[in-house]
Amino acid sequence: MEDKGLQTLSQLIKDYCGLRYADRLSTLKEKISEHVSRLGLSYWEYCRYLEETPGEWDALVDLLTINETYFYREENQLNHCCYDILPTMKKYIHRPLRIWCAACSTGEEPYTIAMLLHETGLFLPGAVEIIATDIDKKVLEKAQKGWYNKAAFSFRRIPAHLLEKYFSDVDGGYQINYSIKRMVKFKQLNLLDQKKAAEIGEVDVIFCRNVLIYFDHDTTTQVINSLTQNLIHGGYLFLGHAESITEGNLGMNKINSDKSIYYRKD
Ligand SMILES: C[S@@+](CC[C@H](N)C(=O)[O-])C[C@H]1O[C@@H](n2cnc3c(N)ncnc32)[C@H](O)[C@@H]1O
Predict the structure, then answer these.
(1) Nearest 10 degrees: CA dihedral of 37, 42, 44, 48?
(2) Of 100, 130, 159, 216, which cross-links 203 as Cys (Cβ 3.0–4.6 Å)?
(3) What digits encode the pLDDT tens for the residues 17-65?
(4) What does pTM read for this prediction?
(5) Distance, CA 210 to ligand 1 centroid (Å)?
């Protein structure tokens, strides 16, 4: 009975946000049992409660998501995009460039892109817009503050001179400077919500890194299909190292450069 309730819940979760728990019911139980028992509900009852209670999906999503991230993650890819690809795009796109970080967690990824673009010296304020989205409201609150604990995992890869240049010591932690913070706009967005994704509008580059690994094949295809609707022709898609797209590549050409692997919409 308990397993049936968990199974139904895992299906609701997959339909809502793509996270795959059907083959990991014990992990699902570990993540939510305390929350559900505090409510005094069985897993069956919780399924109904979830659908009927405003805000409950946000609470559940925060328990389920894995938000691990850090500054300068997979830096070859980031350097290649910011030092080689974007300056070239800037020459033929006569408007601010638009970059979308589609699962940004606590903000380290979009802030790294903003720092690198600042470092190129080619992008004056207003020449680039970074839209950073995530499904998890709690991580977005943290991202928006731009304040990080000094001992956090976040700083494991950042070069010391950039830490010094772009952060200030505030309340015993590091606060990202305003010059970088203002380049990034955060917004809540579920990657499965195609209507809301379309509202992001046309973008030149998409980063969707280290989130597809939590989806199954069909959900991955659906998400890539939806994301790339927003991408201009000739625009670029960057995935995490462990992620790839196949199946006719959905209109995307895989580029295997010596610096990184990415996709271009052709
Ligand atoms: C492991 S983090 C990756 C963060 C960053 N992209 C990186 O590579 O460092 C995965 C993020 O995906 C988000 N996520 C999971 N499912 C999502 C969905 N359906 N829509 C939007 N974001 C989602 C999680 O909340 C989490 O913050």
Answers:
(1) -60
(2) 100
(3) 999 999 999 999 999 999 999 999 999 999 999 999 999 999 999 999 9
(4) 0.96
(5) 7
CA of 60 to the centre of ligand 1 (A): 14
Q: Which residues contact 145 (CB under 8 A, 6 or more apart)?
A: none
**Nearest CA residue ID for atom 19, ligand 1:** 17
| Contacts of residue 229, Cβ cutoff 8 Å, sequence gap at least 6 | 194, 197, 198
Tokens coding 170: 């505030």
- Angle, helix 56-64 to helix 25-38, in steps of 10 degrees: 140
**Structure tokens belonging to residue 52:** 């009927």
Q: Which residues pair with 133 in a beta bridge?
A: 187
Tokens of 178: 């305003």
Looking up tokens 């009852």, which residue turns up?
45
**Residues in contact with ligand 1 (CB, 6 Å cut-off):** 17-19, 65-69, 73, 103-105, 109, 134-136, 139, 190-192, 209-211, 240
| Distances from the Cα of 39 to the Cα of 7, 30, 32, 46, 106, angstroms | 19, 16, 11, 8, 28
